[in-house]
Amino acid sequence: MIKGVDVSSFQSTTYSLTGLDFVFVKATQSTNYVNPHMPAQVQRARNAGVVVGMYHFLVRGNIKAQAAYFVAKAGARPGEILACDWEANTDGTFPSNAEKDEFLAEVKRLAPKHRVVLYCNRDYWLNHDRTSVCGDGLWIADYSHPAGHPAIKHAWLFNQYSAANNTDSDVGNFSTRAALKQWAGYPPATK
């Protein structure tokens, strides 16, 4: 397995990349929020040569507009991963299964050359999900089990396993960074 983190406006623009192979950066939420640290956080990961992913915090309603907003604001380069963050909002509401599925499909339609994955926690996957739709793969949060061993039966690609020291730590179900880059569709390195 390979190691990564995910960051948002709560983390520094100079977060540590030591020992990492990938980074997911919060890009957007709804149709009116862009992470102000995103450009610097993404550029830091790109400069280090790690695999980059960006995610959108999905809220109820205006699903196609949210997908368009995310794709436009993320500015993903070839091979960079796009993710849907499906969880409860601060008011306790959360998008339905149909909205989650529609968002994943619309992002894939708008950005067909990018891998699109679903992030959710184990409770959502086991108790709220009814369709098992997760785009090109599942990014599952499970802090109750060791890294790389989330307690689900469904195949997964990424596992968020800890939030210690204000950092969300992840592992990827890939043998090497190069394997992840190949799966994600990164262009071949030029010499």
TrEMBL record:
Domain of life the protein comes from: Bacteria
Gene3D superfamilies referenced in this protein's UniProt entry, alphabetically: Glycosidases (3.20.20.80)
A Pfam family the protein falls into: Glyco_hydro_25
SMART domains: Glyco_25 (SM00641)
Keyword S-adenosyl-L-methionine listed: no
Family: Belongs to the glycosyl hydrolase 25 family.
Organism field: Actinacidiphila acididurans
Keyword field: Glycosidase, Hydrolase
Protein name: Muramidase
SUPFAM superfamilies attached to this UniProt entry: (Trans)glycosidases
Keyword Zinc-finger: no
